[in-house]
């Protein structure tokens, strides 16, 4: 019995033990570390390096030069600024034994990486980014696929194929050509940050582009490109849509999966709200939207539903939004809500309020549905949408870092259980799922998987949900003694709930142990070895001095121990809000290597709202001492601007997106 107990204790200790490793930033071992790109410009790249879950980073070096090695402290991540292949500046995030986080800064001096002050570090970073604010490049719309200069996105907009080009890093389009024919060549220094094409039967007929503060429109007439006004552009677009031969008029049932040959379908989730938006492809018109046998909406006098957005709460369809077109012209958005099993037309405000309530469910403690399953988000983090090649089969290994160019990855937490979501980009699908050498699922015949959710216990995947194309309910798996086996919904929900309870109990025991240690310290006599150093009197004096501790907020990697982080879609932008937790305040704001704002110990910031467009941080609002201050991406930096300048640029972005994008927007903070 004694031997058995010792063996169990030893196994448990080994399971919690992390192997200490060293990082040579000039020669990164990707078997030990995950490398994530943060930002890129014309003359620089920023990357983040983190140790894999079973390792702990104790020393950072650059070849034979030691950068950091401090007893009793761990390095949780390293951010590097690279100029080509040369490392120019390094930032280390260090955690001490007391849980306090600090940053260490270093830069290259005479070929060596040397620790410097934060001020010297920021100066070095700014010098590297100077002159990289904008590099003008020519765009040829006949170019196929992605390039090192721009991102490519394809979508369907009321039957027309829309292709958009967005410059990467600090590139900007200074001219647009169709082969040898110029479409747009500005006379001054004006550049474009977004170009969109509208295609019909494989040929480009219309083009719109975004410049500083306005949108420009072009039409191809008799083989030549002409600059036109918005009214002419809209009329030409309407004419193209009306010339599309109707293959079939459809009834759309929101309780059934959409036929992806007839619809372009996008899936997203936020909190407890799971959503799908179906845009009809060329030749298909939706004239009726149904909920099973009952009719939600029916078109009259040429009315069609260009897109249908559906919102689920658990397995139940709760919300439906319809993008209404008449005579191939967008008219308005219609909103419907499930009330006691029947869909009723509601106002946008009522619709958004219901959606927000469903989203918030994920934050409720011990939230379970009638079957005992844990409710919450299946995809909590929406990141930039890169397009991957169509029809690609992906082999997904849950134990390895995902290929972010091929797989969209989201992370979150449900009732103390961490999870990750994996969704192939573009029209790619998952054909094989495994965890290291352990097989889980392999596609048979026409099976395709579009979404995998992995739940982690003790940093290891324990449960999996696989969502197959054309099937309403996910396939469920659990790991037992190192092997993966299929589970029924009842088994899955029950085991997941038990695991959540065990995690909470473990956290409670850990917290109780910490409280007992504090009580022991408080009772220690003044002359005791540790009583004076860690006693109650000194701790109370420190708490008095730090009633409102100021901390540094890194927008690229917010610390959820200091701020409450919420992510949502706001008027077309991927938006991240960071709110300081009670008793805390933000004294300084940075974005990776870049300094954004510093209160110099006097001003206090309580909230930041950062707006991303195509994965790039473009707009920022900080609440400082109760007032809102505005910032914008200016070249490579995020800089303070007047509110009027901010609103002008922000509004132009929103209006341009409304023209170029096919998503259905449901109020300021909700998107289906």
Description:
The structure is a single chain. With 672 residues, the protein is of the alpha+beta class. It has five domains: 21-129, no CATH class; 137-242, no CATH class; 248-363, no CATH class; 497-535, no CATH class; 546-660, no CATH class. Helices cover 18% and strands 49% of the residues. The chain has eight helices and 45 strands. The strands form ten sheets. A six-stranded antiparallel sheet has the order 2-3-6-7-8-9, covered by helices on one side. It has a six-stranded antiparallel sheet with strand order 11-12-15-16-17-18, with helices on one face. Strands 20-21-24-25-26-27 form a six-stranded antiparallel sheet, with helices on one face. The longest helix is centred in the C-terminal third of the chain and has 35 residues, at 489-523. It is globular. The chain starts with a helix and ends in a 12-residue tail after the last helix. Residues 1-16, 363-390, 520-546 and 658-672 have low confidence and may be disordered.
């Amino acid at each position: 019995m004694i031997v058995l107990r010792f063996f169990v204790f030893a196994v448990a200790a080994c399971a919690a033990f992390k192997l200490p490793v060293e990082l040579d930033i000039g020669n990164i071992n990707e078997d030990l570390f995950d490398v994530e790109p943060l930002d890129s410009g014309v003359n620089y790249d920023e990357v983040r390096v983190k140790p894999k879950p079973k390792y702990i980073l104790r020393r950072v070096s650059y070849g034979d030069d030691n950068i950091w090695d401090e007893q009793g402290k761990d390095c949780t991540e390293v951010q590097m600024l690279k100029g080509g292949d040369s490392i120019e500046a390094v930032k280390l995030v260090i955690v001490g034994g007391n849980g306090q986080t600090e940053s260490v800064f270093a830069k290259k001096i005479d070929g060596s990486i040397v620790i410097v002050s934060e001020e010297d570090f920021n100066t070095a970073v700014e010098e590297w980014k100077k002159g990289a604010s904008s590099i003008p490049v020519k765009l040829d719309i006949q170019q196929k696929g992605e390039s090192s200069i721009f991102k490519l996105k394809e979508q369907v907009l009321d039957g027309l194929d829309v292709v958009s080009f967005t410059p990467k890093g600090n590139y900007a389009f200074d001219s647009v050509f169709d082969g040898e024919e110029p479409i747009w060549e500005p006379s001054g220094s004006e550049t474009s940050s977004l170009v969109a094409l509208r295609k019909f039967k494989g040929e480009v007929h219309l083009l719109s582009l975004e410049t500083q503060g306005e949108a420009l429109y072009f039409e191809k007439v008799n083989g030549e490109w002409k600059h036109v006004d918005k009214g002419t552009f809209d009329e030409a677009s309407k004419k193209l849509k009306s010339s599309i031969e109707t293959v079939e008029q459809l009834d759309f049932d929101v309780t059934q999966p959409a036929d992806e040959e007839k619809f372009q379908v996008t899936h997203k989730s936020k909190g407890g709200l799971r959503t799908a938006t179906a845009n009809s492809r060329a030749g298909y018109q939706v004239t009726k939207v149904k909920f099973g046998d009952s009719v939600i909406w029916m078109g009259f006098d040429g009315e069609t539903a260009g897109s249908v957005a559906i919102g689920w709460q658990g397995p139940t369809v709760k919300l439906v939004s319809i993008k209404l077109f008449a005579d191939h012209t967008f008219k308005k958005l219609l909103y419907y809500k499930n009330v006691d099993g029947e869909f009723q037309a509601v106002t946008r405000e009522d619709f958004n309020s219901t959606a927000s309530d469903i989203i918030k469910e994920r934050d409720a403690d011990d939230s379970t549905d009638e079957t005992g399953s844990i409710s919450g988000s299946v995809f909590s983090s929406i990141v930039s949408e890169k397009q991957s090649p169509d029809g690609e089969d992906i082999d997904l290994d849950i134990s390895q870092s995902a290929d972010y160019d091929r797989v969209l990855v989201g992370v979150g937490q449900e009732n103390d259980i961490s999870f990750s979501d994996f969704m192939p980009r573009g029209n790619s699908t998952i054909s094989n799922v495994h965890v290291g050498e352990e097989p889980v699922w392999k596609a048979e015949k026409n099976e395709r998987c579009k979404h995998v959710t992995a739940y982690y216990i003790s940093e290891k995947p324990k449960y999996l949900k696989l969502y197959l194309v054309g099937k309403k309910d996910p396939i469920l798996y659990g790991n037992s003694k190192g092997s993966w086996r299929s589970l029924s919904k009842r088994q899955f929900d029950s085991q997941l709930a038990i695991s959540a309870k065990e995690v909470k109990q473990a956290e409670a025991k850990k917290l109780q142990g910490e409280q007992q240690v504090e009580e022991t310290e408080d009772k220690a006599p003044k002359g005791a070895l540790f009583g004076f150093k860690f006693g109650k009197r000194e701790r109370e004096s420190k708490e008095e001095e730090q009633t409102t501790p100021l901390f540094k907020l890194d927008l690229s990697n917010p610390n959820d121990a200091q701020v409450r982080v919420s992510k949502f879609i706001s008027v077309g932008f991927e938006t991240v809000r960071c709110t300081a937790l009670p008793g805390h305040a933000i004294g300084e704001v940075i974005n990776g290597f870049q300094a954004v704002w510093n209160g110099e110990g006097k001003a206090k910031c309580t909230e930041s709202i950062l707006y991303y467009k195509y994965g790039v941080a473009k707009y920022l609002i900080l609440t400082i001492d109760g007032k809102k201050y505005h910032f914008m991406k200016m070249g490579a930096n995020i800089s303070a601007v007047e509110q009027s300048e901010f609103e002008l640029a922000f509004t132009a972005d929103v209006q341009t997106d409304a023209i170029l994008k096919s998503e259905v927007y449901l109020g300021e903070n909700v998107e289906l």
